[in-house]
Amino acid sequence: MERTFAIIKPDAVQSRYTGRILQCIEESGFTIRAMQMRRLSVTEAEGFYDVHRARPFFGSLTQFMSSGPCVVMALEAEHAIARWRMLMGATDPAKADVATLRKEFGASIEHNATHGSDAPETAAYELGYFFPGIEFSK
Ligand code: CMP
User: How far apart (Å, rounded) are the C-alpha atoms in residues 79 and 73?
Assistant: First the structure.
């Protein structure tokens, strides 16, 4: 079993897609081990996306991520990291395969509905960033 970190981003929450995305997550075999709706501060968004600090879209991305509530989650499944990324689809919804979350619910490369960790080290960091010290329920 593997755990990954996932976000339903502010664009998807605002568009009332939260329930449909959670349904896809559960029907795809993930167990939601932790979940919280929260609004990030700009500083929290900047810390979370620190690896992108030098990118031209960093300011816009962190403003967007703090523009309204999002849903942060710990998802568990076998190969959860790769499977969640497959379910999300490509970063740019225009390039995402059909039947992926970003194709269905994303509006643009920035407002792309969901986030997922890209590697085990990133998942450990991101889970610890949002769920520090948590004992994930079994
Ligand atoms: P995410 O998977 O959360 O990881 C970094 C985020 O930066 C990405 O999803 C997009 O929301 C955003 N992003 C990536 N590339 C671009 C881009 N070229 N322009 C604007 N935003 C981007």
Answer: 16
pLDDT in tens, 21-30: 999 999 999 9
What CATH number does the domain containing 34 carry? 3.30.70.141
Alpha carbons 62 and 65: distance in angstroms, whole number: 5
Q: Is the CB of 62 under 6 A from ligand 1?
A: no
Task: Quick: pLDDT tens for 28-60.
Answer: 999 999 999 999 999 999 999 999 999 999 999
Tokens representing 94 are 């225009």
Percentage of the residues of the chain whose pLDDT score is greater than 70 = 99
Contact 6 CB / ligand 1 (< 6 Å): no
Domain encompassing residue 34 = 2-38+70-130
For residue 76, report the distance from its CA to the centre of ligand 1, in Å: 24
